[in-house]
Write a structure and sequence with these properties.
The chain is mainly alpha-helical and about 110 residues long. The protein has six helices and two strands; from the N terminus they run H-H-H-E-H-H-E-H. It has a single domain, classed as Recoverin, domain 1, CATH 1.10.238.
């Protein structure tokens, strides 16, 4: 399964276009434009699994900086500031990584 099995390729492209410039990435806006915020809990769990590159059950900071590239290989890497802001917004338990439930809460809130 791939992300385009769950999300529309045109919505993904629009979301990536919206944050092409460095330091322009907003997780909330990306989730809305890509259509992620409208997906069911089970679909978000599948999206999380696809984004968890090392299949550890968490998205760690080093994986998070490549978040946009998981949607399109030619997309840019998130800046250090964007990565830290994204992590801080989703990491509710303060363990330095994003779990599936934390990801789902962030996308749906």
């Amino acid at each position: 399964m791939s992300l385009t099995d769950i999300l529309s390729p045109s919505d993904i492209a629009a979301a990536l276009r919206d944050c092409q410039a460095p330091d322009s990435f907003s997780p909330k806006k990306f989730f809305q434009i890509s259509g992620m915020s409208k997906k069911s809990s089970s679909q978000l769990k599948e999206i999380f699994r696809l984004l968890d590159n090392d299949q550890s059950g968490f998205i760690e900071e080093d994986e998070l900086k490549y978040f946009l590239q998981r949607f399109e290989c030619g997309a840019r890497v998130l800046t250090t500031s964007e990565t830290k802001t994204f992590l801080a917004a989703a990491d509710h338990d303060g363990d330095g990584k994003i779990g599936a439930e934390e990801f789902q809460e962030m996308v749906q809130s």
